[in-house]
Amino acid sequence: MSRRRVVVAPDSFKGTATAIEVADGLAAGWREVHPDDEVRCLPMADGGEGALDAFAIARPDARRMPVTVTGPDDRTVEAHWLLLPGVDGTEAGGTGVVELANTSGITLLNPLRPLEAHSIGFGQAIRAALDAGVDRLVLAIGGSSSTDGGAGVLQVLGAQFVGVDGSPVPAGNGGLGAVVRASFEGLAALPPGGVTVLTDVTNPLLGRLGAVTVFGPQKGIGEGLAHQAELNLQNFATLVTDARGTDPRESGTGAAGGVGFGLVAWGATLTAGAASVGEEIGLAGAVADADVVLTGEGRYDHQSESGKVPSYVRGVARAAGARVGLVAGAVQSTPRDFDAVVSLTDLAGSGEAAMAETLRWLREAGRRLAAELG
Known about the structure:
By secondary structure, the chain is of the alpha/beta class. It has two domains: 5-43 and 287-373, Glycerate kinase, domain 1 (Rossmann fold, 3-Layer(aba) Sandwich); 51-274, Glycerate kinase, domain 2. It is 36% helix and 19% strand. It has helices at residues 19-33, 51-58, 101-104, 120-131, 151-156, 173-176, 211-215, 223-244, 259-266, 273-281, 283-287, 309-319, 344-348, 351-356, 358-373; strands at residues 5-8, 38-41, 63-70, 76-84, 95-99, 136-140, 160-162, 181-183, 195-199, 269-272, 292-300, 323-331, 340-343. Helix 1 packs across helix 15.
């Protein structure tokens, strides 16, 4: 058979392998079976951890820009944002990509801080990109540690939230209930090319589908704290809505503990994460002449068809006439319209075994897909 063109475009397997590691493992397994094939790795993301890596691999001219920020537990974090240079190769006219996960993410906390964690560090990294003169911002907001409604980000950008005595309120969700006045007079202007926010979450800010109810438990907001945390967020939302007209019912405002809401109040636009990342890194062009496209995620379940990386990549691949293979750490819902499906749990014999040696089983998955689709 003639030399095949294969594109490997998975999401990360959260907690066990980055998108780069997943792509490399699958590619290595495929090459063992078909060493002459042209295999290109193009790791994907849905707006959470790994977005910077996806952009960096797709854009060889990208530059990692170091920045020191205040982490969600007030400790110093050495982070970075990504500069995609403009046509003249400089910051001016370029795009800044900033990831919440490496500045204010939940993996930076041990232990969790249910009411005290904040998004200040993310705001500081955004500010650094603005100060560098970028023309446009792309913000990936998955993996947050806090439920502060984006107050931390907005404060760094120039907003003020004060209590009854006129002094700033404490950072985090716990301080939101004490806010009596919100001022946006000093809020930084959006960059000329605007701000695009990547998220795979469509939840509103408040209520039974909101940030506290749905995502609070993973951030330590148990039943004993949930009611007060919701009241705090509601108080903050009312003041911001009065000042900026931001609707907390809007889809995605509950993303990242309400950072989505705060960014909309700034003037940013929320977009579906996987599709936006794919568009930004040129996935459609990469698979235009591909014979096979491999994708995957850690857990394929009922949410996977709602704009997650595998369903998005499958759609792009089908439009190009390519066959599509899916790899998942665990398959918990029947996959639709894939030409081949491999579960690492099935390969390894158990979920524990798959997680213990994820890279080994990814390579084996690559071999299995090569045998079936090659």
